[in-house]
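Standup notes
- DV: blocked on the single-chain target, sequence here:
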Amino acid sequence: MEVAIITDTHFGCRKNSKLFHDYFEKFYKNTFFPTIDERGIKHIVHMGDCFDSRKGIDFSALDWSKRVFFDEVKKRGIEVHLVAGNHDTYYKNTNEINSVELLLKEYDNVHVYSKATEVNIAGLDVVLVPWICEDNEKETLKLIEKTTCKIALGHFEFKGFRVNRQIVMDHGTEINSFEKFLRVFSGHYHTRSDDGRIYYLGNPYEMFWNDVSDRRGFTILDTETLGHNSIDNPYRLFYNVYYEDNDYQLLDVTEYEDKIVKVIVRKKSDINKFEKFIDKLQSVVAELKIVENYDFSGWYEKDSETYESEDTITILDRYIEDSETELNKSVIQELVKDIYQEACELV
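- DV (later): unblocked, structure below
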């Protein structure tokens, strides 16, 4: 039997951005649910970060998530097994108060797990593991040690895996305790990566600039063979456009309608021609950024191509990593990420 696995849906992201929700909805309407229907899937595992903000949710975002996702699985008679991710939990040291338990009580087909639990899904015994924090770490590792299940699914922060295409996590949970499993599937990191046994499946869609052109979607697991395959999301939101005295009259802007576009200027010798190029893009895009000046004392020059496509937090991480400070760089990076995330939630 087949089970669908999805993770890090982040409903309500960007302060309930209509642009992002319209983009998300296209994926669910045209890719996710048609695949579910075609394959007759009756079980979904959601591996955490269902909602975006740990502090609260906009009422219209909650209505959107019910209409677009939870009502659709309900009417299909699909059982959803949902673990609490770090974005779903109100406190950082405990999963006791979490949005998925509080907001989804009306759905008797949605089963929420705030503690590590052994479950049989479509005939397969698995361990479902929510976000591991100070309050549940000992209990979780104890269950991991004694379980006879060969599959674990959860919201893990394993050391040594890619957070995105530029950054590898240099701290977090050690994988030694999970060597007993044949497969470990995880959410939390949004890009796909694996070591042949532990699989980060990636989230369904682009959400930040460092996601641009990165494959996203969801996963189908065969509970009998334990084989799994990715179903890609065909839709994009972020685009890099490179300008090198391009002829604006030849620019087809159809692809960029209602998208977030970054124009990276490599050569600009005719201001009037450049402005017409920008005007043509501006007439259709949802958001436009222009990057012209890369001169930041040369610290990025070793990889300017990569730098051009990075988002703010990635640039800050690289800057800290390249600095000559004797302080613990990992601690500084984590502090900067926390500050940046809080700042984003205030926008």
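- Follow-up: Residues 123 and 197 are 21 Å apart (CA to CA).
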